[in-house]
Amino acid sequence: MGKILAITNQKGGVGKTTTCVNLAASLVATKRKVLLIDMDPQGNATMGSGINKNKLELSAYDLLLEDAVLSEVILSTAEGGYDLIPANADLTAAEVELLQEKDREFRLRNSIQASRDKYHFILIDCPPSLSMLTINALTAADSVLIPMQCEYYALEGLSALLDTIRRISDVLNPSLHIEGLLRTMYDPRNSLTRDVSAQLTDHFGNKVYRTLIPRNVRLAEAPSYGLPVLHYDKDSRGARAYLALAGEVVRRQEEK
Amino acid sequence: MGKILAITNQKGGVGKTTTCVNLAASLVATKRKVLLIDMDPQGNATMGSGINKNKLELSAYDLLLEDAVLSEVILSTAEGGYDLIPANADLTAAEVELLQEKDREFRLRNSIQASRDKYHFILIDCPPSLSMLTINALTAADSVLIPMQCEYYALEGLSALLDTIRRISDVLNPSLHIEGLLRTMYDPRNSLTRDVSAQLTDHFGNKVYRTLIPRNVRLAEAPSYGLPVLHYDKDSRGARAYLALAGEVVRRQEEK
Ligand SMILES: Nc1ncnc2c1ncn2[C@@H]1O[C@H](COP(=O)(O)OP(=O)(O)OP(=O)(O)O)[C@@H](O)[C@H]1O
Ligand SMILES: Nc1ncnc2c1ncn2[C@@H]1O[C@H](COP(=O)(O)OP(=O)(O)OP(=O)(O)O)[C@@H](O)[C@H]1O
Ligand SMILES: [Mg+2]
Ligand SMILES: [Mg+2]
């Protein structure tokens, strides 16, 4: 039974897309079958996976609003080895058009239900907002992985995200829960980073992944080649960290 | 006649809020009167200015949807010395509610027109999306300041932003143009940063501000004290960079 993880945080630039692309590739390296769904109109997870978002026949938009079948929209990614539902700016229109639909929060959930058993993990990359696209991802997901930069604005925004998750689980998706919080761009020399990290572990305990993703320029370089970092520089600290995260995600899944 | 600048980039985490708060405080230091408008439901510019977003009587939401008068909503910021239109999560509802209004793109523009001459500069902090709140900011603004992290995803997203600016100037706001692109979190030791920076200056010429904002931890620490960096650590590289930016913005304005 495939596990569906929404990778979300409305704070911008905290490493959502970087986590999606690199966790997907690392899970494939542990012999799991993975589907990555790009729900961000920026289409960063699409470009970061080596797919040109400007040359798509079908995309996440068609899944949500044109009743396209999942298998028609899926692309395989040559290097990463995972399947991808690509996205581009067409998704911006979906925010508004979904509001007219009666089952608007369930569109993504309904379109992936039939195929979830083909994968071990389905990861959903979310835009930096708590809008209808993110609500669709949270309604479709089993649980939520929250990338967290250890800085003030990201910490400050956490309560709004937790409120949204609680509201979705009350009304739309009762089994939704927090899978874990992932500390990204972690710089141990920086006292602000250490302070915020301590607040996270105090408050969330073992919901905070032990794996820390360090700030590592190879993670920022890899997307310009359309590659996960594992296939760009496999010995980099970034590649090793996401492999360690994949190990931790798999272990937690099997302990359940 | 006050100059209205929208500070926007739909890419998340590129330094929009940090630029708004610190440019506002630096312009005040050059004896200009400044209004900062927070149009992001995250309310980061509000918190970063020392105002508790959870204890607001009136906010940007009331300006857009409840016909509140600007002078009723304005708060003064003790340290920064600029006026603020605060925001909080209520603005999330505005995205949807504005769609029912007939003059939906002009709500912000109409509510600030009468007061623009009280200020030298009006800065508008935008959320990381090209939604109705950002469209309101672009329709109200004279020009756009684009904070740019010199990395792949930020560069890749620039064309979508330029398209949106062009569409707004064609239909809603004919005088809208790009004021400048600001390189933020700039690390000269990093070849990716230098590559992307070179592409920006090749493509945009002197639209790229000469001022570079370096990566400086004091900029990330200051918001947790509700202070612009100028009032947190005035000798830091971050404080000096934003003062230099204020100088460049004022000079460009006076040369027109
Ligand atoms: N650990 C890291 N080390 C260095 N750079 C990183 C790291 N993680 C992400 N980055 C870079 O930081 C920027 C922000 O990351 P990313 O785009 O993945 O965040 P995001 O949360 O998906 O942003 P958005 O809110 O726009 O969707 C990108 O340029 C990315 O390449
Ligand atoms: N020059 C800098 N040096 C170091 N840290 C910075 C710098 N500029 C911004 N930051 C930090 O980086 C993070 C992102 O910046 P900021 O929140 O201003 O970006 P934003 O574009 O407003 O994000 P969002 O898309 O969520 O609105 C914040 O934690 C901020 O404190
Ligand atoms: Mg992203
Ligand atoms: Mg911001």
Outline of the structure:
Chain A has 256 residues and is of the alpha/beta class. Chain A has helices at residues 16-29, 44-48, 60-65, 70-73, 90-97, 107-112, 132-140, 152-156, 158-171, 191-204, 217-221, 237-255; strands spanning 3-7, 34-38, 75-76, 83-85, 121-125, 143-149, 177-186, 208-214.
Describe the structure.
The structure is a homodimer of 256-residue chains. Chain A is α/β, with parallel strands linked by helices. In chain A, 43% of the residues lie in helices and 17% in strands. Chain A contains twelve helices and eight strands. Chain A has helices at residues 16-29, 44-48, 60-65, 70-73, 90-97, 107-112, 132-140, 152-156, 158-171, 191-204, 217-221, 237-255, and strands at residues 3-7, 34-38, 75-76, 83-85, 121-125, 143-149, 177-186, 208-214. In chain A, strands 3-4-2-5-1-6-7-8 form an eight-stranded mixed sheet, with helices on both faces. In chain A, a hairpin with a 6-residue loop joins β3 and β4 (83-85). The mean pLDDT of chain A is 97. At the A-B interface, α2, α5, α8 and α11 of A face α2, α5, α8 and α11 of B. The complex binds adenosine-5'-triphosphate (2 copies) and magnesium ion (MG) (2 copies). One magnesium ion (MG) binds next to α1 of chain B.
